[in-house]
Specification:
single chain; about 400 residues; alpha/beta; Aminopeptidase; Alpha-Beta Plaits; 2 domains; four-stranded antiparallel beta sheet; 16 strands; elongated; Peptidase_M20; Amidohydrolase; Bact_exopeptidase_dim_dom
């Protein structure tokens, strides 16, 4: 492994550029597949650093490439990818921040501004200091929040047009001490599947309930019965979540409804568990509805693939993190987390590792939950993220 660039080195090398980049991106958020100004800003910065930039990959996505080394070298050339997400959320940010969003109803409430900044920082260090032979590619992805951007880039020929041998990604994590890196081999972030259960009954006046088929009662029993799926059908060693998140009717105060609509989602890591969850949700919904003389229709969709880390790549990521952060700041076999990330789509095609970087534990200093209107990425973690990504690239590629 080449010489180590520590977070302190990153701070010295990049000075105020990291804060300036991050705050500009935070002020100008754009939602999924609308990241036009964001992509322009990133492309210009990367071109100024010497990267060749391809635009419009998968919609608004970018791929920026930099190759170093002797073309006559007989060693096989390798390519390392660094992926960062670009989109913001349709959330109105709290007022009063100097770098607050200037786009009403839109904000970087998940830290993608910081992820882009860390990728830019790594690109700058690698361009300005080198220390590797081969190719580094930045994959700047649109539309992570709805889970569509990674697949859009793949469908647009990302991996055929821009081959990648190994891929790294990073996400900030509130609730973990700032600058501490958590990673694990295997599943680290869950799949997300969505379901809608529509219960059809026979509505009518609330006074003679014997004259109707009440879908509200059937729907309530379905919601309760679904709580047994994880408790009684899923092997306890396999994490899973079934959540009902919506319950709507077409009734009125004095009218029993004809239709009830239940919405929700499931989380898991194992494809067989995904299949089991769908089967049980369908079986319970139709069975309970039938027991009440009603009828249930179930729609079940797969929104996010689980993010599964390659064990060998993860081992190298751990070594890189230990080199730049130290053993007290690295957890090499963390617990998996149940939120989802469409990095999992890319990890199905390329040996990959996705890591979680602590954003802080105190409210206002990194501890505010993701997707909150008062969330903000902790600028203090930027040098740690940059140092890790730089070291991961150099660990994968030979020295000059």
């Amino acid at each position: 492994m080449s010489a180590v660039t520590t977070p302190a080195d990153v701070h010295r090398l990049l000075g105020g550029r990291l804060h300036a980049w991050r705050h500009h991106l935070h002020r100008h958020p754009e939602t999924a597949f609308a990241e036009h100004a964001t992509a322009d800003r990133l492309a210009t910065t990367l071109q100024d650093l010497g990267y060749a930039v391809a635009r419009g990959v998968g919609g608004t996505g970018l791929v920026a490439s930099l190759t170093r080394g002797d073309a006559d070298d007989d060693r096989p050339s390798r390519t390392v990818g660094l992926r960062a997400d670009m989109d913001a959320l349709p959330i109105q940010e709290v007022e009063g921040r100097e770098h607050g969003s200037t786009n009403p109803g839109t904000m970087h409430a998940c830290g993608h501004d910081g992820h882009m900044t860390m990728a830019l920082g790594a690109a700058a260090v690698l361009a300005e200091e080198g220390g590797f032979t081969g190719t580094v590619r930045l994959v700047l992805q649109p539309a992570e929040e709805p889970g569509r951007g990674a697949q859009a880039m793949v469908d647009d020929g990302l991996l055929q047009r821009f081959p990648i041998d190994v891929l790294y990604g990073l996400h900030n994590l509130p609730g973990v001490p700032a600058g501490h890196l958590h990673v694990r081999p295997g599943g680290i972030m869950a799949s997300e599947d969505n379901f809608t259960i529509t219960v059809h009954g026979r509505g009518g006046h609330a006074a003679p309930p014997e004259a109707v088929v009440d879908p509200l009662v059937a729907g309530a029993e379905i919601v309760l019965a679904l709580q047994t799926v994880v408790a009684r059908n899923v092997d306890p060693v396999h994490p899973a979540v079934v959540s009902c998140t919506g319950f709507e009717t077409d009734g009125a105060r004095n009218a029993i409804p004809s239709t009830v609509r239940i919405t929700g989602d499931t989380r898991s890591f194992d494809p067989q568990v995904q299949v089991l969850l769908e089967e049980r949700i369908r079986g319970i919904a139709t069975g309970v509805a039938a027991a009440h003389g009603a009828r249930a229709e179930v729609t079940y969709t797969h929104e996010f693939a689980p993010t599964v880390n390659d064990p060998e790549v993860t081992a190298r990521a751990v070594a890189a993190a230990l080199a730049v952060l130290g053993p007290d700041r690295v957890v090499a076999d963390c617990d998996p987390v149940m939120p989802s990330e469409d990095f999992g789509v890319l990890a199905r095609h390329v040996p990959a590792c996705f890591s979680l970087l602590g954003n802080g534990t105190e409210p206002g200093r990194g501890g505010t939950p993701l997707h909150s209107s008062d969330y903000d990425l902790n600028d203090e973690i930027l040098p740690a993220g940059v140092a890790f990504l730089v070291q991961a690239v150099r660990a994968e590629l030979p020295e000059p």
